[in-house]
Amino acid sequence: MKTLVLLLTACALPPSVSAAAADTQPVLVESRQIWGEAPHNAFTDLIRFKDRWVCVFREGQGHVAADGALRIITSTDGNQWQSSALISSPDSDLRDAKISITPDNRLMLAGAEAIPHPQTGKTYKHQSLVWFSEDGKNWSAKHEVGEPNFWLWRITWHQGKAYGFGYGTKKENHGIRLYVSNNGKEFSPLVENAAPDAGYANETSMVFLPDNTCYCLLRRDGKPNTGLLGTAKPPYTEWTWRDLGVRLGGPDMIRLPDGRFIAAVRLYDGKVRTSLCWIDVDKGMLTEALKLPSGGDCSYAGMVWYNDLLWVSYYSSHEEKTSIYLAKVRFEIK
Q1: Which three-class secondary structure string do you get for 185-230?
Q2: How far apart are CA 156 and CA 101, in angstroms?
């Protein structure tokens, strides 16, 4: 494993941020590589569970490879990490690990199975899956969730229900479908087409407010390829979307203790990088706040607010090979 990288520096302000806002900008306290055992380590998520850190990601021979598996690593302090489990599937590529905590205090791992050569009797190439664990080491059998060829990319729990947008993986079903579940094992469509005019909408991150308003950060590819910010109130069947005017990838978004929204995304303008960005939900604006040490094949972060710091897992290929990193970022909370 690489030598740890320690950084303590105020970030440079992007041109769109005024000098008056300088004291509100995040500061990178530390960034370190925490895993790089496989040829390609990528697509992370992060959570704190029973006084331990749990980081999940995909590992394989390459960005796309038939041997893709989901690795679960844990740590008590964020410095030393151990492998707790590896979940694989014969003849398929497991991708995009996402982790959450169920209302009955179990870990729920979500991912998708990409099947290069569908088996006899199967007509689909993608199937969303979930697994459950009480300790991060021992995992249940897989549960197929959602519908074939709809990629349930991230699952968010709110008031005892699991919500997630699934995006169509075939040319004829491009679009996003909102799913809901009472137990995390059976998901049913709540909205068949949540963003009818969005084009090739796909990856998402949802944040629910105490008043039950939901915001969704949405990636789009193709033309147009700029990200969208969605808003809905219960029962989440009617969505309003605003164009952020910025291309982004691998979104994750959370709300800070002072109510501001921060997102971790891949940015494509100039050098590709993983950055933290302010999301102004009132104006529908995205503003870069802090570039994390990254480049090339990168992003797909998980974020946790803990001990007055934002902890961010992500992957990047800016050093010798594509590896997993953990950053700690300080904010001035208003």
Answers
A1: CCCEEEECCCCCCCCEEEEEEEEECCCCCEEEEEEEECCCCCCEEE
A2: 9
Q: How far apart are CA 275 and CA 248, in angstroms?
A: 10
| Whether the Cβ atoms of residue 110 and residue 97 lie closer than 8 Å to each other | yes
**Amino acid of residue 89:** S
How far apart CA 54 and CA 83 sit, in angstroms, is 10
Of the candidates 29, 6, 43, 30, which has an alpha carbon nearest to the alpha carbon of residue 322?
A: 43
Indicate the SS3 state at residue 314.
Answer: strand
Could you list the beta-strand ranges (E) of 36-101: 40-49, 52-60, 69-75, 82-87, 93-101
Residue 268 pLDDT > 60: yes
pLDDT in tens, 2-14: 433 333 333 333 4
With b for 16 or more beta-carbon neighbours within 10 A and e for fewer, the 120-152 pattern comes to eeeeebbbbbbbbbeebeebeebbebbbbbbbb
- Measured CA to CA in angstroms, residue 166 lies from 127, 255, 324 at distances of 10, 23, 25
Residues 6+ apart with CB under 8 A from 249: 203, 219, 265, 266, 268, 299, 300
The pTM (predicted TM-score) of the whole model is: 0.92
User: pLDDT tens for residues 55-106?
Assistant: 999 999 989 888 899 999 999 999 999 999 999 998 889 999 999 999 999 9
By DSSP bridging, strand 156-158 and strand 150-152 are unpaired
Q: What number of other Cβ atoms are within 10 A of residue 159's Cβ?
A: 9
Q: What is the largest CA-CA distance in the chain?
A: 63
The yes-or-no verdict on residue 110 having pLDDT over 70 is: yes
Q: Is the pLDDT of residue 34 over 90?
A: yes
Helices (H), the chain: none
